[in-house]
Amino acid sequence: LQPDPWDWASEGAWLRVRVGEEGAGRWWGEEEEWAWPEAEGAWPEAEGGWWLSPDSAFSKRVVRRGRGLAKPGRGSLCRWAWPGAEPGSGGWGTVRVGEGAGRWAGLLDACLESMGEGEGAWLRPEGAGLTEGKRGAGLQVTLGRFTAPPFWWEEPVGGEGRWAEVRAWQEGAESFLRAGWTEPAARAYSRALRLAVAAGGGVVPPPFLSPAELHAGLALCQLRLNLPAPAATNAGRALALDPTHVEARYRRGLAAAAMRDLEAAAADLGRVLREEPGHPGARRELRRVRGEARERDARLARRLGRLFA
């Protein structure tokens, strides 16, 4: 059973900031109790009045215009409210723009960057609107106060703050994987890899893990998403950083088998078994790969036999 891609249950961990961050920075604006107009309290039945984002990812229908010219940016802390019942119990919450890995969280980030202080709007994923009388997915969003986006160069290269952010994204990706949410996990691993590059190259201070772990985790996600070619690439990058990484070699073998490169798959799986004889999946997969290779060779022999008969 595939999870609903617009289910809020996959996003709870990303719709709040880490402990201790809510009071950081200088906040602009204020929160105020504001009731949505009765006519706008329910899902808009008409299609008019929607603004389509430049990347066509979401549509927004403004119910209350914001104040001032300032807007949040990547890294801003934002206080936002969801008066509707869909996301959960409703009320005010705090998010940091750019830290969402799920589908809703990513759209919320983009929507908040287009809003002014006090603005209230409907947010709708593009392609999830009114179809054959069905309302689709939608969300009421009100932006309260927010902080100015930080400058990326303020944290020194190699600083522990940057590596702590890498670790936080990695832990978030692992939690998504444990919950069975592969697509958000892949986005979180990708974000962690980009942050690891910005954090200062290949020297990783303890106790942070090597980027090889991030590449290996992303390869696992791509295998589950049926993307064997990118999975083989990321597993290879993990092995380039750490040639002893058994799981990365196993995942590269699985990706090669999925792409019908049976010899490369057998080589990787065989080496996994030499390095870790009790590996739970390598022996089974190697047996399957060798069986497929024998069947392929037998088919080829029969065709060549008919050709030269």
From TrEMBL:
Domain of life: Eukaryota
Protein name: FKBPL protein
Organism: Calidris pygmaea
